[in-house]
Amino acid sequence: MAKGDPAVSSRGRRATPRSRRAAATGEPELVQLLTPTGERIESATGPDGTEYRVDFTDEEYRGLYRDLVLVRKLDAEATALQRQGELGLWASLLGQEAAQVGSGRALRSQDMAFPTYREHGVLYCRGIDPIMPLGLFRGVDQGGWDPNEFKFNMYTIVIGAQTLHATGYAMGVHMDGKTGTEDGEAVIAYFGDGATSQGDVNEAFVWASVFNAPLVFFCQNNQYAISEPLERQTRVPLYRRAGGFGFPGVRVDGNDVLASYAVTRHALDNARLGQGPSLIEAYTYRMGAHTTSDDPTRYRIASEVEAWQAKDPIARMKAFLYKQQIADDAFFAEVDEQARTEAVHLRERVLELPDPAPVSMFDHVYPHGSPELDAQRARFSAYMESFEGSVH
Amino acid sequence: MSRIKEFNLPDLGEGLTEGEILAWLVKVGDVIELNQPIVEVETAKAAVEIPAKWAGEVRSIFHPEGTTVEVGTPIIAIDTDPGAGPVPESTTAAASADLPTPSAASLAAVQVAPAEGMVEPGLIGGVAPGGRTAVLVGYGPRNGPAKRRQRKDGPPQQPATTPRPAAPAQVATPVPAAAAAPASVAAAAPASVAPTVNGNGRTGGPVLAKPPVRKFAKDLGIDLATLTGSGPLGSITRDDVQRAVDGSTVVAEPLAATSPTTSAASFGADREQRIPVKGVRRLTAENMSRSAFTAPHVTEFLTVDVTRAMKALDRLRGRREWRDVRVSPLLLVAKAVLLAVRRHPMVNSTWAGDEIVVKEYVNLGIAAATERGLIVPNIKDAGRLTLRELADAMTGLVQTAKAGRTSPADMSGGTLTITNVGVFGVDTGTPILPPGESAILAFGAVRELPWVHKGKVKPRQVTTLGLSFDHRIIDGELGSKFLRDIGDFLADPEAALLAWT
């Protein structure tokens, strides 16, 4: 204790305002391959000297753009459905499309993803029907899907809890001997800047580190934990936290789909080769509300939102495709039309999602039932049958 | 018939019960697209735009702007197939233009919607196909008489001799035998507990009450220790507190009545109006008391001859490029404040505990009285604006405020405020600082008064300035210099401009 005291006091109080401010808000170094105006940067160097670059075909560039637009449109449709009383709640990803599409497309089919409740873009890139999470937000199911089938864990509402699940899963992958080759398996855990203050996330860092788990911690730093700004989470850039736990960290422009892809692919490859975990801080901005129940104008100013509008992930990709003549007006119109059609299709299917039968509450308690549960189900069914017009 | 669809106000934020219609973005007769914004609604959580659920033509709007509407109530009717000719008989009543009340016709229309596949869960007071009263999505589980489905004849628990339920009253409240038993138990239990509690009368130990009840009692100034609880384990319930309040009122009234000599005086509760404290009023109250009791206020006054300034304004109004600009004395006061701040930056600062934050930018707040109460929108970085830009910004700000459209962003981040009490015809005041600001200037009425001018008493245009400042940051010297500079500018704007800029 005697040793600890001076350290505590020097850390806690002595820092000068200047250095504190610089640490919290100074413009960070980030890996960027596409500038906000759509200029392509050949390669970028990470803090540990890693050189990041991507080499896409024109078709792949267009594919990424299509992903971004579709993901945004489907998200907007879900927000509208909530406003119309068809969803109880929705957590919009507006502004974070590039971080999600870039990292989502970097995953290989054998890789496992652990999302929060906002990873609609990653879900889309895994090839999953976007309607899958909408039952949860409509309140007609519990959001329970088979993570193994989709290589995509269930949406986790508890902040940061999934990082521990991912760590345990990744330790299992390692123990099963599925790492160490070019075609090994890797795991990715998504979370936000607010979650980094959770005990769970810090514990996950420790366990993943000391057990060399093949895990990529993908933090979408969207600047706000609901209403709390980043300076209430950390005094050092988040990616630098990794150093203290003993694994590499890198900050990437989360509004740059190319850099997000490059950095994630590199981290996943390290993991699958058995080189342990890493932390990616995707520096981005939540353009919308935390959820549909939130009003961001109460805690942030319009000029800040405007400044981030200028860094829009889709606008810069469009500018790049246009300038490089990779895509033309016809392509952009076609993508918009596809997005519109898919959004309408999604809306129609959401409205048709069936309400669950009351008796279905017994369905998923045990995989093979139990005598007590079966008796309860029988009693409840008989009770429901006792009403006129019953169809149970 | 079902082509007319009525849209119910949904629960926009997890458990809200009502919303206020701020503005309709469409009107009757408009042809609208799917997801086109139709209305702005403000709830306790947020002001949001609601997109149209169906494309079509607006047939009716049920509630005017400014009304507060309960969740689940129809607010608009949309003809989803306007090209299909006139609407059948039964809905034309609901389609009249002058804010029809959604009554029987609307309920019928709403009930029809799910039948043709458009899922409409959570109807309040209406029963969806299949008989359920859905509450899963959109609308909170609000009261509404819970219509239950009728039990089939001879359910197992009931004696076979039960008559068929024929009267509607019986249908509405079926009491299954199984439910009746617990009800009687519940009724009996408090009866057996209450006497012992009252008899014991709790002579010591902590007072039992739930936190909301404690808050309730605290708000009303009731000491819980003086009450006898009727709840479980002798705990004090909300009703107990309410009874205590009512009781004291009852006691007070006889006192008033027993002074018969003052025949006319009557001051009972029946002659008091109780206005719920909410919205802008609550916010104002919180801000004002927080500021008044954290920042030590000092107020200074200065009476100034502003005749020259008024003449300068007239000359400004006469210039061609200023012809269509609204120019008021407040504009010059704002300019004076901005210039004086530049000479005394310290007044534009915030007390932040262990440091003082001095701001280089001035977000100039203008206190505005609106129908919703006092609000203080501010002009961001007003110091960078030219006089013309400042005039435009002030006009825009006031118009926005009067229209009730001031956004929270417009109101946050203020650094220094002007309150124009002169428009109400008073001379000055001792304004209270908006929280986080260190100075606020009250600008009084400009009156023609006898004034000593160049050695003679003459009628001159005179006003009084009142400056309150946070004495933790601003000493009397600085506050006085700041106020004097504002006064100097208003006494002779041209000279001050030449001297200072």
From TrEMBL, chain A:
Pfam families for the chain: E1_dh (PF00676)
User: Which domain of life, per UniProt?
Assistant: Bacteria
Q: Which GO terms describe its biological process?
A: branched-chain amino acid catabolic process
Compositionally biased region (Basic residues): 11-21
> Region Disordered: what ranges?
1-28
Q: Does the record's keyword annotation contain Ribonucleoprotein?
A: no
In this chain the Dehydrogenase E1 component domain maps to 68-343
What is the protein name given in its UniProt record?
Pyruvate dehydrogenase E1 component alpha subunit
Q: Which organism is it from?
A: Micromonospora matsumotoense
UniProtKB/TrEMBL annotation, chain B:
Cofactor dependence: (R)-lipoate
All copies of the Lipoyl-binding domain together span 4-79
Main EC class of this protein? transferase
A Pfam family in this protein? Biotin_lipoyl
GO CC entries: cytoplasm
Could you tell me the EC number(s) of this protein?
A: 2.3.1.-
Q: Does the keyword Ribonucleoprotein apply?
A: no
Renumbered residue ranges of the record's region Disordered: 135-175
Question: What protein is this chain from?
Answer: Dihydrolipoamide acetyltransferase component of pyruvate dehydrogenase complex
- What taxonomic classification does the UniProt entry list for its organism? Bacteria, Bacillati, Actinomycetota, Actinomycetes, Micromonosporales
